[in-house]
């Protein structure tokens, strides 16, 4: 048994209650970790509310996790007992959840955490960084492209900016207010407020990443150049695709949780995180700082997000 925060039924934040679960037996290719922290992501609220019907059988949320390996299954050769690790490794069907004292994970989804960061701060990285990485891969970015990130100051947007800049790509971005606009400009991003991005480049952008969906995705289609590629992390809506047709655009929908749900493509996630750890420790990428809370604050964190009051990335330390 291990203590955990359990979704007793779908609904509001109050349905998450402390309790105990039976931890799954360790299988080949898996590791057991003692959880240090769980990263909060907006998808957690959708799963909790039943809007995304992909909760695991234990009812434990938490996709992003950091912790210490305490047991290793057969066939795992890149991790060992005592390793500090991080990954987007659960919180959905077919897996455990990070809002617990211990968690059994597919080792392919994990990598050694950056040594230059606290283990708690590492829990803020995986889902948003992997999403940005997959989007840039699908867009096939080159140094000659003009990349626009709509919502560049958000969780996924910040990582898209950092990963693109590491490869020497000129990044343009949008922000929702003057404070975030100034932050982007300080990071070397050619930025504008959302309504003004079309004026940044004459003729439109070769590659566009939308990190919101809805009106932001419609804007992405409008500012894309002919034959451009557009990626979105939220395609769940009804859209007018006229601009996509008349410009012959290529559209990519990014759903980074798919490998967790299907089992296909998991190893690529762990490999990316291993490379990212090396880049962070080498000083090539500066990691955005996350606010640290306790797991017992989880309901309040969900309420704050749904009220639009959560301004920064949050990690929840395992203090059940």
From TrEMBL:
InterPro entries, per the entry: ADH-like_C (IPR013149), ADH-like_N (IPR013154), ER (IPR020843), GroES-like_sf (IPR011032), NAD(P)-bd_dom_sf (IPR036291), Zinc-ADH_QOR/CCCR (IPR051603)
Keyword set, alphabetical order: NADP
Keyword match NADP: yes
UniProt keyword annotation of NADP present: yes
SUPFAM superfamilies from the UniProt entry: GroES-like, NAD(P)-binding Rossmann-fold domains
Residue span(s) of domain Enoyl reductase (ER): 11-316
Annotated protein name in UniProt: Alcohol dehydrogenase catalytic domain-containing protein
Organism: Bacterioplanoides pacificum
Biological classification of the source: Bacteria, Pseudomonadati, Pseudomonadota, Gammaproteobacteria, Oceanospirillales
